[in-house]
Design goal:
Layout: H1 2-22, H2 26-46, H3 50-75, H4 87-110, H5 127-136, H6 139-160
Length: 165
C-alpha cells in the first residue's frame, strides 16, 4: 500500500510541477503549487513524519501560498502573450537540469541505501527535541533565515509602492 501511495503522490507532484511551469497565468501557476505542497505533505506522512506533514500543509500550502498570491496581485504581473524562450534560458535550463541529475546520480551511487540497520534517528518524531535542536545547535542559520525573510518582505513593500507625483 505504501508503494502505491508513493507512486501516486510522486506522479501528482510531477504533474502539478509541470502545470506550475507551463502555466501562462502566474495566479494559476501559484494555485497549482497548493496541491503540489499537499502531495509533498502526503509523502511526509508515508515517512511517518507527521509533524513535518502538518507543517508542510499548514505553512506552505496555506500561509506561504496566500502570501505568493498577494504579491503576484500586488505587483500586478502582466501575462505575457506569445511567450518566447530565449536560447540562453533554454541552454541554462538544460545545463542546470543536467547538473542536478548528475549530482543526484553521484549521490545515489555513493550512498548505502541497501545497507540494513541504518543509524537510528535521535529525534523520533517529537517536537520538543526538534525545538531544542533548532534553538541550540542551529540558532545561527535560523536567525540568518529570519533576516533574509525580513529583507525580502521589505523589498516587496518597496517594489509595490506607487511613485507619488
Amino acid at each position: 500500500m505504501h508503494d502505491l501511495l508513493f507512486i501516486l503522490f510522486s506522479g501528482l507532484i510531477i504533474v502539478f510541477g509541470a502545470l506550475v511551469v507551463a502555466g501562462k497565468n502566474p495566479v494559476n501557476s501559484a494555485m497549482f503549487l497548493v496541491p503540489l505542497m499537499i502531495c509533498v505533505g502526503g509523502l511526509f506522512v508515508l515517512l511517518e513524519a507527521f509533524f513535518l506533514a502538518a507543517i508542510q500543509i499548514l505553512v506552505y500550502a496555506g500561509a506561504v501560498m496566500v502570501v505568493f498570491l498577494f504579491i503576484i496581485m500586488l505587483l500586478d504581473v502582466d501575462v505575457e502573450k506569445d511567450r518566447q524562450i530565449s536560447s540562453f534560458a533554454a541552454i541554462t535550463g538544460i545545463g542546470s537540469s543536467g547538473a542536478t541529475l548528475g549530482l543526484l546520480l553521484l549521490a545515489l551511487s555513493r550512498s548505502d541505501l541497501g545497507a540494513a540497520g541504518g543509524g537510528e534517528s535521535t529525534l523520533q518524531g517529537e517536537t520538543i527535541p526538534l525545538g531544542k535542536l533548532l534553538f541550540t545547535d542551529y540558532v545561527l542559520p535560523f536567525e540568518i533565515l529570519s533576516v533574509l525573510l525580513l529583507v525580502a518582505m521589505i523589498g516587496v513593500i518597496l517594489l509595490s509602492k506607487k511613485k507619488l507625483q
